[in-house]
Amino acid sequence: MNTNIFLQIYHDYSERIQSGEIAAGTKLPSENDLTREYGISRETVRKALQLLSENGFIHKIKGKGSFVLDLGRMNFPLSGLVSFKEMSERIGRKSQTIVYTTEHIPIPHAVARHLETDKHATVWQVIRARNIEGEKVILDKDYFRSDIVPLLTKEIASGSIYAYLENELDLQISYAKKVISVEDATAEDKELLDLKQYTHVVVVRNYVHLEDTTLFQYTESRHRLDKFQFVDFARRSPGEEK
């Protein structure tokens, strides 16, 4: 038997899920049922289900089974600090970064407040749209302190800025505070995003710190409402009361 039979199962189910034949929320057949259906070992079935899970097609719940995820929305983690390039590789969808602006400017008053820095400072402003499967659904507005990041180019901005900061500038990016809100779409949102009928966007404000606690980056990431859900993992500590 083909030792890659688990890939056949993966492709069978991923295609049926993407086509809508198997709807979001549907429970897949059990491991035992799939073992009998394909005439293979349970371990092979588990490899196929794990691959479906890793690529965002299903969610496995211990003791209950595997359930099809809503592919219309993409999961963005609340915890962790992940670049869009890293995230797009995880979600496995065709994506493109469109760079509108990469310029060295006097710090805007509102950004100076967010970065808690001198109003006479300068920053690198980077404005980018994220095109996912043919639609511009994220507008990222990044501001980097220029005393810490002395140079940014359009070429760097079209790839991974974090890879450049960490690998070329040797900056130790450590943690971020995130503030999430739903706000009215601005004229800029309407111009640079494919908002369709939506009049509001989800705004994620990131305050990013280096390992020495220096706040060096402020970002507004503006998301079309229908495309994203923000997820986190919470664990209850023993002894906590409701």
From TrEMBL:
The keyword Transmembrane does not apply. Residues 3-71 form the HTH gntR-type domain. InterPro entries: Bact_HTH_transcr_reg (IPR050679), Chorismate_lyase_/UTRA_dom_sf (IPR028978), TreR (IPR012770), Tscrpt_reg_HTH_GntR (IPR000524), UTRA (IPR011663), WH-like_DNA-bd_sf (IPR036388), WH_DNA-bd_sf (IPR036390). GO terms for molecular function: DNA binding; DNA-binding transcription factor activity. GO terms for biological process: negative regulation of DNA-templated transcription. Keywords: DNA-binding, Repressor, Transcription, Transcription regulation. PANTHER family: HTH-TYPE TRANSCRIPTIONAL REGULATOR TRER, MANNOSYL-D-GLYCERATE TRANSPORT/METABOLISM SYSTEM REPRESSOR MNGR-RELATED. This is Trehalose operon repressor. It comes from Paenibacillus nuruki. The lineage of its organism: Bacteria, Bacillati, Bacillota, Bacilli, Bacillales.
